[in-house]
Amino acid sequence: MPWLACGDRVVASLEVARTRAERRRGLLGRDDLTGALLIERCRCVHTIGMSFDIDVMFLDARRRVVDMVTMPSGRIGRPRLRARSVVEARAGACERWGLAVGDALEVRLDA
Questions:
Q1: Pure H helices in the chain
Q2: What distance in Å separates the CA atoms of residue 105 and residue 4, rounded to the nearest whole number?
Q3: Domain with 103 in it: what CATH number?
Q4: What percent of the chain stands above pLDDT 90?
Q5: Nearest alpha carbon to residue 91 among 56, 41, 46
Q6: According to the model, what pLDDT value does residue 33 have?
Q7: Residue 36: pLDDT above 90?
Q8: Number of independent structural domains in the chain
Q9: H or E stretch including 39?
Q10: Which pTM does this prediction carry?
Q11: Residue 23 to residues 10, 17, 37, Cα–Cα distance (Å)
Q12: Upper half-sphere CA count for residue 42 (Cβ side, 13 Å)
């Protein structure tokens, strides 16, 4: 299982949306999320049809956080032109994990 890390800290288990269908679906149809979801090749997300609020971290090509936002369900976000991927997590996760704009995130295959 992949893990989301920041520096020497592993912050969460990580799911990766690998296919086009997985990227389009994101968290739709789910009641909860443990950990985080990485969506590659993504600059904009929405929460229409979702049953919970999410934190969204927009990452540049080097996986540095360029913006963070908490999105209530039923919203359409605006694109972040510098973003190349996003990480989605249950609302409040970024604060619990101590993440901020400028942090460099990485995907680790072992904790």
A1: 20-25, 93-97
A2: 7
A3: 2.60.120.1140
A4: 70
A5: 56
A6: 77
A7: yes
A8: 1
A9: strand 36-40
A10: 0.91
A11: 23, 5, 10
A12: 27
80 vs 46: CA distance, rounded Å: 13
Helices (H) and strands (E) in the chain, counts: 2, 7
Boundaries of domain holding 74: 3-108
Q: Are 40 and 85 in contact (CB under 8 A)?
A: yes
Cα separation, 93 vs 55, whole angstroms: 7
- Please choose, from the candidates 69, 74, 65, the residue with its C-alpha nearest in 3D space to the C-alpha of residue 100: 65
Measured between its terminal Cα atoms, the distance across the chain in Å is: 9
Within 10 angstroms of residue 45's Cβ, the number of other Cβ atoms is 23
Q: Could you tell me if 106 and 63 are in contact, meaning their C-beta atoms sit under 8 angstroms apart?
A: yes
**Which of 52, 58, 55 minimizes the C-alpha distance to 28?**
52
Q: Name beta bridge partners: 90.
A: 54
CB 5 within 8 A of CB 108: yes
Tokens of 33: 């999320």
Handedness of CA 25, 84, 60, 71 (dihedral sign): negative
Q: Average pLDDT, stretch 71-85? A: 94
